[in-house]
Design brief:
175 residues; alpha+beta; four-stranded antiparallel beta sheet; 63% helix; globular
């Protein structure tokens, strides 16, 4: 993939993903904060506003504020910057790889923006489930991270399969 095309693709994904995340969180702050949980489609989908000072499923919310700052802001900032540098510098990354890693980066940045602007907390408001089986409460940035990881795994699977097929063809063509 040409560097110019990669920059455009990365920029587009970052702008759209972070924009949708921040817009949805702004709407959630304005329309859902202080209201009880709302259930839709037979309780398949819930809207429930929370401010999560922890990570995934609130993990780390009980840590001291200084520890949360170093983990949730400093460490995450460093990791996101490192991933972005990796994506931009990698010469042989597939389009799927670029899309997947950029979605992960955009999700990290979306939640990082919240942590910096809103006292270390992230707005979460979405919940899915069937009966007693439910997800944690999440946001659009979390969806971007999970979707991105899924795309990265798919990309690795496809690359491994192509490599295996090439190896198999090479073995068959040997005298």
């Amino acid at each position: 993939m040409k560097q110019t095309s990669k920059l455009l693709l990365v920029g587009l994904i970052l702008v759209v993903s972070i924009g949708l995340d921040q817009l949805s969180k702004s709407i959630a702050r304005q329309q859902l904060a202080g209201l009880p949980m709302a259930s839709y489609l037979g309780d398949l989908f819930r809207l429930q506003y929370i401010e999560n000072s922890g990570a995934f499923l609130g993990l780390g919310a009980g840590l001291p504020a200084s520890a949360r700052f170093w983990i949730m802001i400093v460490f995450v900032s460093t990791a996101v910057i490192a991933m972005l540098i990796y994506v931009l510098r990698a010469r042989d990354m597939s389009v799927l790889g670029v899309v997947g890693w950029t979605l992960v980066i955009s999700g990290g940045l979306g939640n990082l923006i919240d942590r910096i602007l809103y006292g270390g907390a992230v707005v979460d408001f979405l919940n899915l489930g069937l009966g007693r089986l439910r997800t944690g409460i999440f946001n659009v940035a979390d969806v971007a991270v999970m979707l991105g990881l899924g795309v990265v795994i798919l990309d690795q699977f496809l690359e491994h399969r192509a490599y295996s097929q090439a190896q198999s063809s090479e073995m068959e063509n040997r005298p």
